[in-house]
Amino acid sequence: MQNQVQTISTHGFNDQKPGTSGLRKKVQVFQQTHYLENFVQSIFDTLEVPLGATLTVGGDGRYYNRHAIQTIIEMAAANGFGHVLVGQAGILSTPAVSHIIRKYHTFGGMILSASHNQGGVHGDFGIKYNISNGGPAPEKITDEVFAKSKVITQYKTVKFAPVDINTLGKTEFETDRGKFTVQVIDAVQDYADLMQTLFDFTAIKKLLASGFKMKFDAMHAVTGPYAQEIFVNRLSAPESSLMNCLPSEDFNGGHPDPNLTYAADLVAIMFSGANAPDFGAASDGDGDRNMILGKNFFVTPSDSLAVLAANATLVPAYASGIAGVARSMPTSGAVDRVAVKLNIPCYETPTGWKFFGNLMDAGKVTLCGEESFGTSSSHVREKDGLWAVLFWLNVLAQKYALDGMASVETMLKAHWLEFGRNVYSRHDYEAIPTDAANAVMQHIKGQFESLPGQKFGHYQVGSCDDFSYHDSIDGSVSKNQGVRILFVDGSRIVFRLSGTGTEGATLRIYLEAYETDSHKQHLDAQIALAEMIKIGLQISQLVALTGCVSPTVIT
């Protein structure tokens, strides 16, 4: 029996502008009549979909994922797709989606996630489109999607019986556009197989068998099944090495953001004294972020990227060296110093993983990272939390094989002795009124002419700007990417409004100072940066303009 394509009348919405990682709103917003359908149709209308093309669909398992998947399947059939690959139970981590797109050469994919934001009936939902290279759609596509979403008048769909996405296998339908197939795949195996080609699983397995203890926290999010397959089934780690690995629609009431605040249970375990595990890690809602911890020791994402770059040749996939590195502008300059020593290029880009994709496709960079707990390489076109965890374990395994030592703290302090320490911290002020956040940014920009040359304590302002980026590959220009206060000694303060929240505004302050004195490199970042923190608040007048007296999150 043929299923007929239906054209449904609708009207545009004015709030469907994708942020740095797609469209994110409260679940109730997406549940508005036609809201989800309008955005999906706007994506399809922006693309030139070849008849019979394959689409990848999956998400982090949060509330509303299953409903959205069924809607997207029906709309894909009506818009000319011939096949849809769906992760079993609707679950696919973001890096796994990127891998599936690349491995099976699909015409991009829909990722259903609000990443590290809270889930549940009253939580957040999100959707973004990744292009055929596996990476997030570039701005020229997302801008056109937004333009179409405001004027859309109809969308196309085909009504099917709900597809059983819990069971592996194929379901075939006949439509008046032709044959249409939905295939439910086990993407955990595909992703785990990829990791085994990149890293020395034998060496990691020996490390874990030596008495080296690890703890991985999936935060009741998407990486739970992946962690079970990789760490327990393939690397023979004990089940006790894993925590919170059962995915939940509301992340068991938690906030799936792998930082010192929201991964408090893991942090307590890792800072429990002499009996703490040797290595700890956590990942976020959709599996693209990571936090790395040693015994009673925290590794900033900026330092993590630098350490991985400096030790890349210890990992099989990068044994012959890396082509270059890239970091987002707010990320510290620690990796820049490694790049100088390795004599490889280092690129500074705006926040948003899509900016790394062009550099990777052109073969200019191998490793890249963002201070917001995202690190990855050219194996996919997304940040990849479990990849970063395995990278650290592989390097530690090689250190253990060489000298019988495998300490995160020892390795990082040795790195600081060689390269110096970029002391770094980020202060997040979340869910503040948007008008107040904008007022802070305007107040800082209003001082651009007067700030250069001014002295604040031990620091003198050299220059200030609103960061712009010219893409050397496609020629595009991205403006207004963050306000920078650059000091004469190389220290800096960056102010930026985040594009990943769904309520109010998140204002982030990034603070960085370079320390070469080995006697001071061990100091807690908040102590070492105390003067700069005061300067940032003085320049921004944040407390007076927002009423916020302290950050929501400090990392």
Attribute tags:
555 residues, 18 helices, TATA-Binding Protein, seven-stranded antiparallel beta sheet, eight-stranded mixed beta sheet, globular, 26% strand, Alpha-D-Glucose-1,6-Bisphosphate, Chain A, domain 3
Verbal overview:
The protein folds into three domains: about 1-185, Alpha-D-Glucose-1,6-Bisphosphate, Chain A, domain 3 (3-Layer(aba) Sandwich), CATH 3.40.120.10; about 190-420, Alpha-D-Glucose-1,6-Bisphosphate, Chain A, domain 3 (3-Layer(aba) Sandwich), CATH 3.40.120.10; about 420-555, Alpha-D-phosphohexomutase, C-terminal domain (TATA-Binding Protein, 2-Layer Sandwich), CATH 3.30.310.50. It is built from 18 helices and 28 strands. An eight-stranded mixed β-sheet has the order 1-9-10-5-4-6-7-3, with helices on both faces. Helix 2 crosses helix 5 (about 140-150), helix 4 packs across helix 6 and helix 7 packs across helix 13 (about 385-405). The relative contact order is 0.11.
